[in-house]
Design a protein that fits this description.
Number of strands: 20
Bound molecules: pyridoxal-5'-phosphate
Oligomer: single chain
Helix content: 25-40%
Largest sheet: 7 strands, parallel
Strand order of the largest sheet: 3-4-5-6-7-8-9
Strand content: 15-25%
Radius of gyration: 24 Å
Length: about 375
């Protein structure tokens, strides 16, 4: 009997190659890796270890629990930054696991300095300045207050001053330049501290945006958006087996709600993947999958566990139970799916973590 599982292959050598591409572009900056949300759903443990082999020394996660998990898999010297910052009930964890909080507002500065004073030790931190995203990060009034307290500033032992761009994927958006100017303006108050501004797309805005450290996430995982300025490798291959085949006549409805009606005799293949696995229902009647290079359109509504595809035009010798159908590959990338449904690759990728998938990490040098 054939394998009835969907298989998600994550090629670690492609992720490493993407890291090298970015390192070559950012020759004068350190390239950190954003591995929050379990490395965008792909497995922070495996990916961070692979990137550590490429000499990546700094990793960013969103929360303390992500950081603790990561520390347990990484070299103890790796810098692990926590983007959401520090809260009074988890200060001890920061010290225990040697984690670096990104301080986003004066309240977090106070929590951190109270803690380090109690320990009578200086512990490193980073400072997030809001240059216009108006999400996390210190607003102007708080920055002014902080720079007027040199002793407080000194006690923070700042490793980086950072900010985050709102529209880096839109190279022509003047807001990028506005944020860059504001960032440079603030940096004059922190003359001896290293700086970090850019995410993946910020890197392609040019060297002016690189500073001392860049913080790519998406591009490491092959996501570049619809108009890539830097070509990255696809790192994923997701396949599902055909678990049922049937031929229906013209005027037959396929799937829930009679949303698709056949025009001619049609061969329908059913695959065991659905929206519960992260294969978005929005792809109903518009997604595309591949069988050995031949396109097969998604027909009917995607259901929780299943999807139906039209394989009428695929050579008949390629159509059999157990045949593996490619859902994501070099032709049908996360970015392409995003463009079909008018979404963003980030969301498609982070949803695609079906526990029902068999995961295979290709080119895992840890195993060899
Ligand atoms: C503060 C910060 N820096 C860097 C990144 C990485 O962004 P990207 O995945 O676009 O490279 C993120 C991700 O959202 C972020 O929140």
């Amino acid at each position: 009997m054939h394998n009835s599982q969907c298989i998600l292959e994550i090629d670690l050598s492609k992720i490493r190659a993407n890291y090298k591409i970015l390192s070559n572009i950012c020759k004068n900056s350190e390239v950190a890796s954003i591995v929050k949300a379990n490395a965008y759903g792909l497995g922070a443990d495996k990916i961070a270890k692979a990137l550590e082999q490429e000499n990546c020394k700094s990793f960013f996660v969103a929360s303390i629990n992500e950081a603790i998990n990561l520390r347990n898999s990484l070299d103890s010297n790796a810098n692990i930054f926590v983007l959401n910052g520090v809260f009074s009930n988890d200060v001890n964890e920061f010290e225990k696991y040697n984690l670096i909080p990104v301080l986003n507002h004066l309240g977090q500065v106070e929590v951190w300095t109270n803690f380090t004073k109690k320990l009578a030790r200086k512990l490193p931190s980073a400072l997030h300045i809001d240059t216009g995203l108006n999400r996390l990060g210190m607003p102007d009034i708080e920055i002014q207050s902080l720079i007027n307290q040199p002793d407080l500033l000194e006690s923070l032992s700042l490793k980086y001053v950072m900010s985050h761009l709102a529209s880096s994927e839109e190279s022509g958006n003047p807001y990028n330049l506005e944020q860059l100017k504001r960032f440079k303006h603030y940096l004059q108050y922190f003359p001896n501290v290293k700086a970090s501004l850019s995410n993946s797309q910020g890197i392609s805005l040019g060297e002016d945006y690189h500073f001392d450290l860049v913080r790519p996430g998406a591009s490491l995982y092959g996501i570049t958006g619809p108009r890539p300025r830097i070509v990255m490798h696809n790192v994923l291959n997701l396949t599902a087996p055909i678990i049922q085949l049937k031929t229906v006549g013209s005027n037959s409805h396929v799937g829930y709600n009679t949303s698709f009606t056949t025009k001619n005799d049609t061969i329908i293949a059913t695959l065991p993947i659905g929206y519960a696995d992260g294969y978005s229902r929005i792809l109903s009647n518009c997604g595309e999958v591949f069988i050995d290079g031949h396109i097969a359109p998604v027909i009917g509504k995607i259901s929780m566990d299943l999807v139906t595809i039209d394989v009428t035009n695929v050579p008949s010798q390629k159509i059999f139970l157990g045949q593996r159908v490619e859902i994501i590959n070099d032709y049908c990338t996360i970015d392409k799916i995003a463009s079909i449904i008018g979404g963003i690759g980030y969301e498609i990728l982070t949803l695609l973590h079906g526990p029902r998938f068999k995961r295979i990490y290709k080119n895992d040098t840890e195993l060899s």
